[in-house]
């Protein structure tokens, strides 16, 4: 019997069965992944805490330290990442060397 000939009830039951199989497969894949990570950590001599810290987003710094300072207004700084601030671009437009503004 093809799926075209199944009733709505049968298709919904089939859908539920497939969703349950997908959930089980996902859990199985997660377990396999964690086992591989654990094996790699052991090979590398890393503790579980060290591995966990690698994946912990709260440990990541959100703000980069400033790399450049505006000589005309020392309160203006730029990390060197992202869009150039207007004061920095203005200095470059005046044929100034960006290395002159390094902190």
Structural class designation: mainly alpha
Report the end-to-end length measured between terminal Cα atoms: 74 Å
The strand order across the widest sheet is 1-2
Please, how many helices? Answer: 3
Query: Segments where pLDDT lies below 50 for 5+ residues?
Result: none
Task: Describe the main β-sheet briefly.
Answer: 2 strands, antiparallel
Overall geometry comes to: elongated
The percentage helix is 40-55%
Number of domains: 2
Element-by-element helix/strand order = HHEEH
* Proportion of residues in extended strands: under 5%
Describe this structure in words.
The model has no long low-confidence stretch (mean pLDDT 90). The N and C termini lie far apart (74 Å). With 103 residues, this protein is mainly alpha-helical. A hairpin with a 7-residue loop joins β1 and β2. It has 3 helices and 2 strands, in the order ααββα. A two-stranded antiparallel sheet has the order 1-2. The protein has 2 domains: 3-59; 68-101. The chain has helices at residues 8-44, 48-55, 86-93, and strands at residues 68-69, 77-78.
């Amino acid at each position: 019997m093809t799926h075209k000939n199944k009733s709505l009830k049968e298709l919904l039951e089939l859908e539920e069965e497939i969703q349950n199989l997908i959930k089980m497969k996902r859990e199985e894949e997660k377990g396999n992944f964690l086992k591989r990570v654990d094996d790699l950590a052991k090979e590398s001599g890393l503790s579980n805490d060290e591995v966990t810290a690698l994946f912990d987003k709260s440990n990541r710094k959100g703000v980069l330290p400033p790399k450049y300072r505006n000589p005309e207004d020392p309160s203006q700084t730029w990390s060197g990442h992202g869009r150039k601030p207007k004061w920095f671009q203005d200095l470059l437009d005046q044929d100034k060397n960006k290395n002159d503004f390094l902190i």
